[in-house]
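Example for tutorial group B:
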C-alpha cells in the first residue's frame, strides 16, 4: 500500500532522482520508442515552470521508501487563465492499480480547488488505461492530438527541396531567445491575434498576451538551459508580423527539438506562409545546429491545414494523445 502523497515544498537532490526514476520507468513502459529525458532536464522543467505560473509537486513512496508516483500541478496567475490548472501525474508501472493514482488525484484536485480553480486539464496517451482512469473520474476529452516526428538524418534530400521562394508582400526575419525590441510590439500583436489557433481546444485558458509575457516566456525557456528559435513573416505593407513559428532546442543543443507554436493571422492565410515559415526553420536548424537529430510536434486533429503542412515537411505520426478536463464545479 503506497503512503500518502508528500508535498515537495523544498525538493532535495534525492527527490529529483526519485522523480526521474518514476518518469523513466513509465516512459519506457508506455512509449518505448521515446528517448528518456536526462535527470537535469527533468529538474529544470520542474523548477522553472514558466511565466505567470507556479508548480506544486508531490511524491508518493511505497512502504520500503521506493518512489511510486509523482504529480505536478501548475497554477496560473495571468488574467484569463487563473481558473484552469494543468496536472501531470505519473505512476510507476510496477505500482499501478494499487491505489496510488486515485489517492494522488484526490490530493491534486483538493489543492486545485483550494486555489480557486474551476477546472483541471491533463494529457494522456490515447488508447492506454490512463483514458479509462480519467473517464471513470468524470474527466471529459476536450482535444485530440497526433504527436509527429521528423528525423532530420532520414530526410536530408526532402529538406533540401523545401520551398525557399519569396512571397510577394512578405519578408522573413529570425531571432534567438527574446524578441528584438523593434519587433516586440508587432510580435505581441501576432501572438494575441493567433492565441486560439496556437493553443487549440475549447477554453484551455490561453489568456491574453502582452510584451511582458512574451519576454517572460522566452526567458523561462533560457532559464531551463534550452534555446528558443523564432522565424516570423513580416508584412511589407505595414511592418506587422503576419505569422511565426517557434522551436525549442534542448540543453546541449543535441538530440530532439520541440516544436512550439506555429500560427498565421487570419487575414494573411491562404498564401502558404505556414509552409514557408516552417521550411525556413528546418533549414536554419539543419545548417546551424547539426547536433539536433529530430523534431517533435503536437498537431491538434482539428487543425487539418497544419497537419498537411507537417506531412509535406516530412513529419510522420508517432502516437496519439488526448487532453482531458475535469470540471471542479461539479464535484
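The residue assignment follows.
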Amino acid at each position: 500500500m503506497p503512503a500518502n502523497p508528500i508535498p515537495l515544498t523544498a525538493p532535495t537532490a534525492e527527490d529529483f532522482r526519485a522523480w526521474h526514476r518514476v518518469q523513466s520507468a513509465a516512459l519506457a513502459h508506455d512509449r518505448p520508442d521515446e528517448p528518456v529525458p536526462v535527470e537535469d532536464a527533468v529538474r529544470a522543467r520542474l523548477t522553472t515552470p514558466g511565466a505567470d505560473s507556479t508548480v506544486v509537486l508531490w511524491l508518493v513512496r511505497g512502504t520500503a521508501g521506493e518512489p511510486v508516483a509523482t504529480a505536478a500541478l501548475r497554477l496560473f496567475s495571468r488574467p484569463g487563465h487563473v481558473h484552469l490548472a494543468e496536472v501531470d501525474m505519473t505512476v510507476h508501472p510496477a505500482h499501478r492499480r494499487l491505489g496510488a493514482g486515485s489517492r494522488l488525484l484526490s490530493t491534486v484536485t483538493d489543492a486545485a480547488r483550494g486555489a480557486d480553480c474551476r477546472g483541471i486539464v491533463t494529457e494522456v496517451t490515447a488508447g492506454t488505461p490512463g483514458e479509462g482512469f480519467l473517464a471513470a473520474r468524470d474527466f471529459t476529452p476536450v482535444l485530440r492530438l497526433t504527436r509527429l516526428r521528423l528525423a532530420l538524418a532520414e530526410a536530408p534530400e526532402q529538406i533540401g527541396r523545401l520551398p525557399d521562394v519569396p512571397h510577394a508582400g512578405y519578408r522573413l526575419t529570425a531571432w534567438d531567445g527574446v524578441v528584438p525590441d523593434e519587433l516586440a510590439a508587432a510580435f505581441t500583436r501576432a501572438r494575441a491575434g493567433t492565441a486560439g489557433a496556437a493553443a487549440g481546444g475549447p477554453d484551455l485558458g490561453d489568456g491574453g498576451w502582452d510584451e511582458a509575457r512574451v519576454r517572460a516566456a522566452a526567458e523561462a525557456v533560457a532559464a531551463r538551459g534550452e534555446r528558443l528559435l523564432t522565424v516570423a513573416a513580416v508584412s511589407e505593407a505595414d511592418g506587422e508580423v503576419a505569422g511565426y513559428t517557434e522551436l525549442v532546442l534542448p540543453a546541449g543543443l543535441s538530440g530532439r527539438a520541440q516544436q512550439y507554436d506555429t500560427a498565421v493571422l487570419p487575414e494573411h492565410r491562404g498564401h502558404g506562409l505556414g509552409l514557408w515559415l516552417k521550411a525556413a526553420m528546418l533549414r536554419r536548424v539543419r545548417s546551424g545546429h547539426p547536433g539536433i537529430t529530430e523534431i517533435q510536434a503536437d498537431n491538434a486533429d482539428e487543425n487539418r491545414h497544419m497537419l498537411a503542412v507537417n506531412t509535406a515537411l516530412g513529419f510522420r505520426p508517432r502516437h496519439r494523445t488526448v487532453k482531458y478536463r475535469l470540471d471542479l464545479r461539479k464535484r
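The chain has two domains: 6-117, 149-319. Compare this with the pattern of hydrophobic and polar residues in the output above.
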